[in-house]
Each structure stands twice: as structure tokens, then as C-alpha cells.
Design brief:
The complex is a heterodimer of chains A (506) and B (257).
Chain A (H helix, E strand, L loop, with lengths): L4 H14 L1 H21 L4 E9 L5 H4 L12 H9 L2 H10 L1 H4 L4 H14 E7 L2 E8 L2 H58 L7 H39 L5 H26 L5 H22 L2 H7 L4 H80 L6 E5 L12 H26 L6 H7 L4 E5 L5 H35 L3
Antiparallel strand pairs in A: 1-3, 1-4, 2-3
Helix pairs in contact in A: 1-2, 1-14, 2-14, 2-16, 8-13, 9-13, 10-11
Chain B lengths: L2 H12 L7 H11 L1 H8 L4 H7 L9 H13 L8 E6 L6 H12 L6 E6 L7 H4 L8 H6 L5 H4 L1 E5 L2 E4 L15 H13 L3 E6 L7 H9 L2 E7 L5 H10 L5 E7 L4
Parallel strand pairs in B: 1-5, 1-6, 2-4, 2-5, 6-7
Antiparallel strand pairs in B: 3-4
The chains are: A alpha+beta (506), B alpha/beta (257).
């Protein structure tokens, strides 16, 4: 069984009691020692001011959508950077001239460095910069903190003014740049227009419509030509079947027809009448006369026949139609050719219009882009001008002292009270702590449990304290002495507190 | 030492007046004379015992009394093992205080008597506690053959409680406890009265060779462990020295100056 926590604490208390004189001396030494240390502990006074800074960069709202302003990230770092220059140093040395009177250059340099590096510039929240200075002198703390605060504000304002001025200048330069560009594109557009008079946005459409019309006309003409060709072919085939002169065939045929007709009549008559019948004889005579006539017709030559025969009217009709169609065909062919020429011309024109259009589009685009940007820049330039004017007039200042640096009344950090309270507690605790650690670490036998753990023979028990009357008196007198010491220490503490609070006022 | 006084005391011892009931002894001594009465009859008052830090019945040190009694009951009651040595692991362990009180609680029992022998040659304490300065003791007996056992046994001022101081001889070179006369003394004391419990107040076992010699003559050993002074190593080496059959146990002395 190991020694329990309770055993250890009991042992510690026991040890303290055993070495009570030593413990008392330790208590006195520590409590008085810390009191003295607390009295002489350097007092640090801190003075600080808080400045609210509008974090927005002036370029940001002005250039919104057009340019991205650099992010103002570490406000405190920027502030420190702003105040780290030679200018600040000179101003500080001038401001603190009483403190640095009679200093050599090197000492002044050292003074500046000490002051600057002891000045804490911290970001304590969104847009809040805290400027803090700590020193042993409350008035100096306030002066330095106030100095750096004022300087920070004036430098920031100046910087801001410069910033808005440069923002305006920048935007103005950009605007004039774009103005030149816009003028150039306008000029180019004008030149192009004068060179390509026909080049209007609708001309291509017209040409295309015309081409389509011409093509349609060609197709129609071609159709007509083929129609006429077919008709001509028909007429020709008809013409080849018709005799130019129809008279020859008609006369002989007429004669034969008459003969045949008369013979028919004759045959009919013969069926009833004899050849001697007058009618039969007349008919026979007529037939003979017709036959002679037909013989004459047959024996005649062609010219004789022509003269004799008449022209075929159908043939005539067809011939006239044919010649009419031929005339039409010739006319159509001429029209087709002319139309084709026109189509070729239109196509050439369409091509030239296309290339001109592309160029025009580019020029127009350039012009539009330049115009847009220029217009925007003009607006922004006016904004920038207003911002600049506001900053010049210190009206748009976004720095505000949230908390002024004041002369600190109380010191910060470890103060007498803290040190002495800690010392008093330490003085009480130390003997017990030592005893406790000793009990825990030295491995000596301090309890029945530990003894039982150590030996194999029976543990018969523990002999406790025999406090007789003499011991009681001794213990009582020792406790009285210890109480007296404690009282003395408390009185000493109270006296020191009184000195510090009432006499020194802090 | 006064010869007359010695003679009277021897007579008293021989008459065994000292070893009976104290009151009867008191009556006897009254009849013998004033010197005898002064020597054996004077009992310490409760105030005196309290001053000497010796427990007594009805003492207001109830806790201490209770603890001593507990330890007493743990010891063997075997009459052949009535020599108990009390030693310690380091100087100022309170072994003498313990031995003294153990003897005292033993004497509470009216059928028993206690005898405390001071073998702490370097730091004798019985003579001062029991006011026996300049009385004959163990060393005197060993070196002077004319002194008898009875010469060195003294009344302690407590009923049924006798003691032998270390004596006045200061010859450091002598090995007293290996001396045959010491053994004889012990045998005499041990065997003479069966109801007697002998307690030897021995020096620290790790510091003194005497104690190791005394181990041979004692029957039971109790080691007093001083609070917060010894560690496991010392405990172990002491355990190795003491024979197992004699080692009755250890006692933690919680209060050591």
C-alpha cells in the first residue's frame, strides 16, 4: 500500500510542526522580503489612446468594378511603418526637448530608439489602433502616447490627402489616355466610312436579296426556254407529217371519188335498168369523161400540178407558230445571258461588302469599348475630384480619437499589492510545500501504511505524542510567539500599504 | 555510595519485599526505616509521572495509553520469553521513552512486575528519569564482582516497576555485554521470577555493536522507527540483523524531537 495523499498532507503538517521554528523563520524572511521587494519594485505607468481608422482605401470605392485596390491589411503595422521615419524622430526630439537637453547625438538616437520601440502600436479591433506607452513616469507616458497619437493622425491625414490626390491624378491620366484612344477610333471609323460609301449595315442584305432574285429569274428563264424547245420540237414533227401543198392529192382523189361515186350509182341503176337506160348511158359518159380528165391529171407534170394545186393551211399555221417560238427562244437566251452577268457582278459586290463589314465591326467595337471606359473614367474622375476636395478640406477625415491618452493614476503590471499578497501567501505556503515535497520525495517512513509496506514483520502500532503540561505550555507559548510574528507581519504590511496609498497617493 | 544504605537495600531485596504487592512492600518498608522508605517507598505523583512522560492508569493521555497497551498485548506472554529488547534504527528515536512506557503499562497488571534495564551506555537515561543518579547499575555490576544483583535493582517510583540504570563506570574500552557477569545477571533476573517482564533499553541497532550482542540474550525484539528519519534501506538492513523468531515487530514513533 502506497502512502496516500492524506498521509502525505498529514506528514507535511507534522514535519512543519516538527520544524516549526525553521518554518516560522522562513515565513518571516519570505513575507518581509517580498514586502521590501514590492516596495522597491519599479512602478510602470501605462498611457494609451485608441484611434478609429476607416479601413477603406480611397481607391476602392472610386475604382469599384474597374480596378482592385490593394488591401489595407495590417493597420498597426502600417501605423508603425508610418511613424518610424526620420521625420517622427525629429519631431519627437523637438517635443521632448526638455528630456533630451544636453544629450549627444548618439544619446538622442538612443532616446528615440528606446521611446519608439517601447511604444506599442496594436490593432485592437476592426479599424481600431491602440497606441500605448509605458514608463516609470506617468506624465512622460501620457506625453509620449499623446505625441504618437497626434502624429499618427496628422501623418495619416496627410497621407490620405496625398493618396486621394494621387488617385485623382491617376484617374485623370487614365481618362485622358482613353480620350485619345476614343478620338483615334472615331477617326478610323470616319475614314472607313468615307472609303466605303456603299458599306452600310443593310447593303449586304440588299445584295443578297438581289442575288436571290436574279437566280430566281435565271431559273424561270431556263424553264421557259426548255418549254419553248419542247414546243418547237412538236411543231417540227408535225410539220414533217404535213404536205407543203395539199392540191395534188385532192384533185386526183376527187376525181376518183367522183368516179367511184358515179360507178356506185351506175351499179345501182344497172340492178334495175339496162345499159340502155338513159341514166345509165349518162352515167357511163360521165365516168368516161372523168376518166379522161383523171388521165389528163395523171399525165401532167409537177409544175403543172402546182399551178393547178393550192397550199396546205395547217402547214402554214405550224410554220408561223414555229417561227414565232424561235424568235421567243432567241430573246429568252439573250435575257438569260444578261441575267447571269448581273448575278456575277452581284456576287463580287457581296464579297467586297463582307470584308468591309468585318473591318467596320472591329472599328465600331474599338470605338464602343473606348467610349464606355472613357465615360466611366469621366464619372470616376469627378468622384475622385470630390474626394480630393473633401480631403483637402479635411472634411472626409476617417480618423477619430476614440480614447484620449490620459495621465495614468495607477501603475500597471505587478504592483505592491500584488507582490505583497503573493509574497504573504508564498510565505505561508513555502514551509508546507517544502515539507510536502520532502515527505513525498525522500522516501523516509512516515506512516503506518508505509511501514507495513516496507517490513515483513508485524507492525505493532504507532506511539503518539505525549504532550504533558510542560509541553502544552511550551506549545502555547510558541503559538503565541508565532501569532505575534504574524501580527507583526500584518502590521508591517498595513503600514506599507498606508505609506503607499496615503502618503505617496498610489 | 553509602554502605549502610546498600546494606539496607540488600536486606530488603533479599527479603523479596520489593517484588510483591507494592502496598505490602510499603508497609514493610515502613517498619524497616526512613531510608528504606525513601528509597523504595516514594511513589511518583501523577503530576511527576506526567512530567516524566510516563503513562499511568486513568491518565488523561488516553490515546498514548491505549497505543502502549495495544503493543503490550502483541508481545508474547510466554514466561520463558520474558526478556524484551527495545532498540531503534537511529539515535533520538524515542526508544527509551517507548521502553519506559511499555514497562509501565506492563506493571498495570497486578500479577506482573516490570524491570527496565538501561543498556544505553553512551546515552543513559534511566538514572535521570527515575532520579537514580549515582546509583549502582549494570556496568558497576559487571566490573565490580562485589556487587550483587540486588545491589543494582532499584525501585522506580512506580508500583511493580523496577529498574537497573546503566551505572557509573565510564570505562569505554570494556566490552561489557560479552562479559560473563552480564550473562549471569540476565540469567538471574530472568529465571528468578517467572512473573517478571524484563525490558532492555538498547542503543540503535544500526549504530551500536552492543545491541547486536544483546540480541543473543533477549527473547523478543521490538524496533522503534523514528518518524521521517529512516528509509527502506535502513529498515531492510535492520531486518537482516534480527533473527526472525525474536523479531516481534516494529513500532512507529510519531513524535520525535
Amino acid at each position: 500500500m502506497q502512502a496516500t495523499q492524506f498521509d502525505l498532507i498529514k506528514s507535511a503538517v507534522n514535519e512543519v510542526w516538527r520544524n516549526r521554528n525553521f518554518a516560522l523563520i522562513l515565513f518571516l524572511v519570505i513575507s518581509i522580503g517580498t514586502l521590501v521587494a514590492g516596495w522597491y519594485w519599479p512602478r510602470v505607468y501605462s498611457s494609451s489612446s485608441t484611434v478609429f481608422v476607416d479601413e477603406q482605401n480611397i481607391l476602392q470605392p472610386l475604382m469599384e468594378g474597374t480596378a482592385v485596390a490593394t488591401d489595407v491589411k495590417n493597420l498597426a503595422k502600417n501605423a508603425k511603418q508610418l511613424l518610424s521615419g526620420q521625420k517622427t524622430k525629429d519631431k519627437l526630439l523637438e517635443y521632448m526637448s526638455e528630456d533630451v537637453s544636453g544629450f549627444s547625438l548618439k544619446e538622442k538616437d538612443q532616446f528615440w530608439e528606446d521611446t519608439f520601440y517601447k511604444t506599442k502600436i496594436l490593432s485592437v479591433g476592426k479599424g481600431l489602433v491602440k497606441i500605448e506607452y509605458k514608463s516609470n513616469d506617468p506624465i512622460k507616458s501620457q506625453r509620449v502616447a499623446a505625441f504618437f497619437t497626434d502624429l499618427f493622425i496628422s501623418e495619416s491625414t496627410l497621407n490620405k490627402r496625398l493618396e486621394s490626390q494621387s488617385a485623382y491624378d491617376f484617374i485623370a491620366t487614365q481618362a485622358s489616355n482613353y480620350h485619345g484612344k476614343l478620338r483615334g477610333s472615331e477617326e478610323a471609323l470616319k475614314n472607313f466610312r468615307s472609303e466605303h460609301l456603299s458599306a452600310s449595315p443593310n447593303s449586304l442584305n440588299t445584295v443578297v436579296a438581289r442575288i436571290l432574285e436574279l437566280q430566281r429569274s435565271i431559273e424561270e428563264t431556263e424553264l421557259e426556254i426548255s418549254e419553248i424547245n419542247i414546243q418547237l420540237k412538236n411543231i417540227e414533227s408535225q410539220l414533217s407529217g404535213e404536205a407543203e401543198v395539199s392540191a395534188y392529192l385532192t384533185e386526183e382523189g376527187q376525181l376518183q371519188n367522183r368516179i367511184a361515186t358515179i360507178e356506185n350509182q351506175l351499179d345501182t341503176l344497172r340492178m334495175t335498168y339496162l345499159d340502155s337506160y338513159p341514166d345509165v348511158i349518162i352515167l357511163k359518159d360521165q365516168i368516161a369523161a372523168l376518166r379522161i380528165k383523171m388521165e389528163n391529171v395523171r399525165n401532167n407534170d409537177g409544175s403543172k400540178i402546182k399551178q393547178i394545186g393550192s397550199l396546205n393551211p395547217l402547214f402554214q399555221e405550224l410554220r408561223s407558230q414555229s417561227s414565232q417560238y424561235e424568235t421567243q427562244l432567241a430573246a429568252l437566251k439573250t435575257r438569260l445571258k444578261a441575267t447571269r452577268n448581273l448575278l456575277g457582278d452581284e456576287k463580287v459586290r457581296a464579297r467586297s461588302i463582307n470584308s468591309a463589314d468585318a473591318e467596320l465591326a472591329q472599328l465600331t467595337r474599338d470605338y464602343e469599348v473606348n467610349r464606355d471606359i472613357y465615360q466611366k473614367l469621366l464619372r470616376q474622375r469627378e468622384n475622385a475630384r470630390v474626394s480630393m476636395n473633401i480631403d483637402v478640406a479635411n472634411q472626409g477625415l476617417t480618423l477619430k480619437i476614440q480614447e484620449m491618452a490620459v495621465v495614468p493614476v495607477r501603475s500597471v503590471g505587478l504592483r505592491l499589492m500584488h507582490i505583497t499578497i503573493a509574497g504573504f501567501l508564498l510565505a505561508i505556503m513555502t514551509p508546507f510545500a517544502i515539507a510536502y515535497l520532502m515527505s513525498m520525495l525522500d522516501g523516509k517512513i512516515r506512516s503506518i501504511a508505509m511501514l507495513q509496506n516496507t517490513v515483513s514483520v508485524p507492525v505493532l502500532g504507532a506511539v503518539s505524542v505525549y504532550v504533558n503540561k510542560v509541553d502544552s505550555v511550551k506549545n502555547t507559548s510558541w503559538l503565541a510567539l508565532a501569532s505575534l510574528c504574524l501580527l507583526c507581519v500584518i502590521v508591517a504590511y498595513a503600514y506599507v500599504a498606508w505609506l503607499r496609498l496615503v502618503v505617496q497617493g498610489n | 555510595m553509602d554502605k549502610l544504605e546498600r546494606a539496607i537495600r540488600r536486606t530488603v531485596i533479599n527479603d523479596d519485599l520489593l517484588y510483591g504487592d507494592y502496598i505490602s512492600t510499603d508497609k514493610e518498608t515502613n517498619s524497616i526505616g526512613e531510608i528504606l522508605k525513601m528509597n523504595v517507598g516514594k511513589l511518583f505523583s501523577f503530576q511527576e509521572l506526567d512530567k516524566k512522560k510516563i503513562v499511568y492508569q486513568r491518565s488523561d493521555q488516553a490515546e498514548a495509553l491505549h497505543k502502549f497497551r495495544d503493543i503490550r498485548t502483541a508481545l508474547s506472554t510466554d514466561e520463558s520469553k520474558n526478556v524484551v529488547m527495545v532498540t531503534s534504527l537511529s539515535a533520538s528515536s524515542g526508544a527509551s521513552y517507548f521502553a519506559r512506557n511499555l514497562a509501565a503499562v506492563t506493571s498495570f497488571d497486578s500479577t506482573k512486575t516490570s524491570l527496565l534495564i538501561d543498556c544505553n551506555i553512551d546515552k543513559p537515561n534511566i538514572s535521570s528519569v527515575f532520579e537514580l543518579q549515582n546509583q549502582l547499575g549494570v556496568l558497576d555490576y559487571i566490573v565490580d564482582e562485589t556487587i550483587t544483583v540486588d545491589d543494582v535493582i532499584h525501585a522506580s517510583g512506580i508500583a511493580r516497576y523496577r529498574c537497573i540504570p546503566s551505572g557509573n563506570t565510564t570505562d569505554e574500552t570494556e566490552e561489557y555485554f560479552t562479559h560473563p557477569r552480564f550473562k549471569k545477571l540476565l540469567m538471574d533476573l530472568k529465571n528468578r521470577y517467572k512473573d517478571r517482564n524484563i525490558f532492555i533499553d538498547a542503543p540503535p541497532i544500526l549504530k551500536s555493536a552492543d545491541t547486536r550482542i544483546l540480541l543473543e540474550v533477549c527473547d523478543q525484539v521490538i524496533v522503534v522507527i523514528p518518524y521521517g528519519k529512516v528509509g527502506q534501506e535502513e529498515m531492510n538492513s535492520a531486518e537482516k540483523m534480527i533473527p526472525k523468531d525474536k523479531f516481534k515487530g516494529v513500532v512507529l514513533n510519531e513524535y520525535v524531537r
